[in-house]
Design goal:
The complex is a heterodimer of chains A (477) and B (262). Chain A has 477 residues and is an alpha/beta fold. Chain A has 12 helices and 23 strands. The termini of chain A are close together. Chain B has one domain: P-loop containing nucleotide triphosphate hydrolases (Rossmann fold). Chain B has a 6-stranded mixed sheet with strand order 6-9-10-3-11-12, sandwiched between helices. Chain B is α/β, with parallel strands linked by helices and 262 residues long. Classes of the chains: A alpha/beta (477), B alpha/beta (262). At the A-B interface, α10 and α11 of A face α2, β7 and α3 of B.
């Protein structure tokens, strides 16, 4: 029966094509010169170059983290391309985007142009290292929302970028965050001014196209007092038999009563069925609930990447602030995922919720790692964590590593965990009622993930459901 | 009801099957015509439940010899879901729990897959809701079961009622009930038996696998078969069940040379 299950999981990767666009590619390798080159190409102010160089010098003193429950050969950082941009790179409107590129995004189902209009989603698209188009910029500007690539923000809104960049994830935070701070090339920037409710979902699609290129995008989202925004992120990459590094940093800042919802559907190339190729996804995502009564909510559906190392976190500094983490992580074949969250309660009556659903198939390994930390002043803080694992077949693994540190006597922390397995008897039960295996697995998985999918915006929930179905197709049958 | 002129529904000839390399069924012969109710009794480990699962196509059981014809077709060639859509229904002895999958969703999908096969209209969630609530009343089931996950946290009796509910929805041609009476209190047994009786018609047939005679007080069989050592060693009318109730199974082996030589 595990052969049935295996077939259902083994679905070819649909986004594995390479787009033939002319690119401006920097030579491989990393040094202060590379960083100066990137900074110069982007015409950056001196403070940003200093920020980068400081991060780089710190990075040189650091060691790669070895504590995650993942295995991979040592990365040669001199073999990576740190800058790759499709030409021409000066774009004033979407009409100037290489048609080949537009076709790529069409294939990926990215809503741009009219499709964006219909979908009512504003999209920023990052291709290799640079942002190629941002839709709906004018419409958003009418209500004072700034939504553009971070490179553009550095040029047009340098004060805001300077005020917030690195305040949530300091450049010395961890090995990959330091690397990102040194070499980040582009990413999205979003600023919602005081009292503004963003009228549409904002969205970014990331695409790694060039072989041996790394993608180091940097996203900065700021919601001022009483502002709110829902932000979606999607990712894909072509199939290469070498591993590509993706080391992003995402910083969210919520001021008083602000509300930020950040959703990700990650479908980077996962490598083939023998574990060759695929993306190393080493990402630092963190939100700071700086003001009282603010709320940050992370929802992620992680289905791709050879290795995922990612802990979207919330620092709950403002009193009564709320942090949420909803996650579905699916691993198949030889994929490895070590993912989870950190909820750091600093303010009083802060609340956090963690719902994590791990699905392992094939020979994959799926770990949940989470930290709940309640500081001494966080009276009345509450956390609820639920970590469920589902195994498909008998060659995969699931682990849960919860860390709980409570320094306040008035706090409540709850943790629940479960492990289940899609077994022959369940599938036979469905079959005996006329329901085929694929439909059965999809129903079981969707039931398992329901509480997380409910958190996703509608179109994303549909996409996520389909994606899980595709990923598992052929693993049972 | 026995009517010699009614159509043959199921014909089993010399059926042998193994699980994990051990032979459990050692040559089963059984004929079931439309309109008939058969009871298969026998001691624990005689192969009754295995026979039920083999008919439904459980992948853990491997048929090594013999044939099974269902409405003239080779049943063994069909995948389990194809058998189900063709009207073969198994009420499970131990229905599995499926966390996260709502019972109403599951029931509707099952219903529609069988309906589609029969060329009948599928029901949308609202239509199905009316339909299923009607059927649940007959089984004295609380409608709140619809919103719960399939069998999750159900008591033994609730699970069995849910099985009979599914049978009532899918309206099978051949219903095999595997120890549906076990673990039921007397009220639940009555409700389940009434459900079975209501479904029994000249257009279908029932095979009741049971260890005890008590279900047969409510559902009167046309034939009673005694299974032992992986084959049917004795066949009789409904009175045979009463004899088994008082005398047990031991005397059959002494009377039946077929069993003794097996």
């Amino acid at each position: 029966m595990s052969s049935t299950l295996q077939n259902l999981v083994n679905q070819p990767y649909r986004h594995g094509f390479v787009t033939d666009v002319e690119s401006d590619v920097a030579p491989k390798g990393l040094s202060e010169d590379t960083i100066r080159m990137i900074s110069a190409k982007k015409n950056e102010p001196q403070w940003l170059l200093d920020f980068r160089l400081q991060a780089y010098r710190h990075w040189l003193t650091m060691d790669e983290p070895r504590w995650p429950n993942v295995k991979y050969p040592k990365i040669d950082f001199q073999e990576i391309t740190y800058y790759s941009a499709p030409k021409p790179k000066k774009l004033d409107s979407i009409d100037q985007v290489d048609p080949e590129l537009l076709r790529t995004f069409e294939k990926l189902g990215v809503p741009m142009n009219e499709r964006a209009h219909l979908a009512g989603v504003a999209v920023d698209v990052v291709f290799d290292s640079v942002s190629v188009a941002t839709t709906y910029k004018e419409k958003l500007a009418e209500v004072g929302i700034l939504f553009c690539s971070i490179s553009e923000a550095v040029q047009k809104h340098p004060d805001i970028v300077r005020k917030y960049l690195g305040t949530v994830v300091p450049s010395s935070d961890n090995y990959y965050a330091a690397l990102n701070s040194a070499v980040f090339t582009d990413g999205s920037f979003c600023f919602i001014p005081k009292g503004v409710k963003c009228p549409m979902d904002l969205s970014t699609y990331f695409r790694i196209n060039t072989q041996d290129s790394g993608q180091f995008e940097r996203t900065l989202i700021i919601a001022e007092e009483g502002a709110s925004v829902s932000y979606l992120e999607g990712c894909t990459a072509p199939k290469f038999d070498t591993n590509q590094l993706h080391a992003a940093v995402v910083e969210l800042i919520a001021l008083e009563r602000a509300d930020i919802k950040y959703s990700t559907v990650q479908n980077w190339y996962a490598g083939d069925e023998n574990g060759v190729g695929g993306i190393y996804n080493f990402v630092t995502k963190r939100g700071l609930c700086r003001g009282a009564d603010s709320r940050i909510s992370w929802t992620q559906v992680e289905t791709g990447s050879a290795i995922t190392w990612k802990y979207p976190s919330c620092v709950l500094q403002g009193d009564n602030s709320v942090g949420e983490f909803y996650s579905v992580a699916l691993t198949n074949n030889h994929q490895q995922a070590d993912t989870g969250t950190k909820m750091v309660h600093i303010g009083r009556n802060t609340r956090s919720t963690i719902i994590s659903k791990g699905i392992s198939a094939g020979r994959s390994n799926n770990s949940y790692r989470g930290l709940v930390k309640i500081g001494p002043k966080a009276d009345g803080a509450r956390n609820y964590s639920q970590c469920d694992s589902m195994l498909i077949g008998d060659q995969c693994g699931a682990n849960t590593f919860p860390y709980i540190q409570v320094h306040s006597p008035g706090a409540t922390v709850e943790h629940e965990a479960s492990t289940s397995k899609i077994g022959e008897d369940q599938l036979f039960y469905f079959a005996q009622r006329g329901i085929g295996t694929e439909e059965a697995v999809s129903m079981i998985i969707n039931g398992f993930c329901k509480t997380v999918f409910q958190q996703l915006p509608m179109e994303f929930a549909v996409e996520a459901t389909k994606l899980l179905g595709l990923k598992l197709e052929g693993s049972v049958g | 009801m026995i009517r010699p002129d009614s159509k043959m529904l199921l014909e089993v000839r010399g059926l042998r099957a193994t699980v994990n390399g051990v032979e459990i069924l050692k040559g089963i012969d059984l004929s079931v015509r439309l309109g008939e109710v058969h009871a298969i009794m026998g001691p624990n480990g005689s192969g009754k439940s295995t026979f039920a699962k083999v008919l439904a196509g459980h992948p853990a059981y491997i048929v090594t010899a013999g044939e099974v014809r269902y409405e003239g077709r080779n049943l063994l060639e069909l995948a389990p879901e194809e058998r189900a859509r063709a009207g073969v229904f198994l009420a499970f002895q131990y229905p599995v729990e499926i966390p996260g999958v709502a019972n109403n969703q599951f029931l509707r999908l099952a219903y529609n897959s069988v309906q589609a096969e029969r060329g009948c209209d599928e029901l949308d969630p609202l239509e199905f809701d009316d339909f299923v609530r009607e059927r649940m009343k007959l089984l004295e089931m609380n409608p709140e079961f619809l919103d719960r996950s399939v069998n999750e946290g159900f008591s033994g009796g609730e699970k069995k009622r849910n099985e009979v509910l599914q049978m009532a929805l899918l309206e099978p041609r051949l219903a095999v009930l595997d120890e549906t009476d076990s673990g039921l209190d007397i009220d639940a047994l009555r409700v389940v038996a009434e459900g079975v009786n209501r479904l029994s018609s000249p257009d279908n047939a029932m095979v009741l696998v049971t260890h005890y005679q008590r279900l047969l007080n409510y559902v009167v069989p046309d034939y009673v078969h005694v299974m032992d050592g992986g084959r049917i060693v004795k066949t009789g009318g409904k009175d045979l069940a009463l004899i088994l109730e008082t005398r047990g199974y031991d005397w059959i082996g002494e009377e039946s040379p077929a069993s003794a030589s097996a």
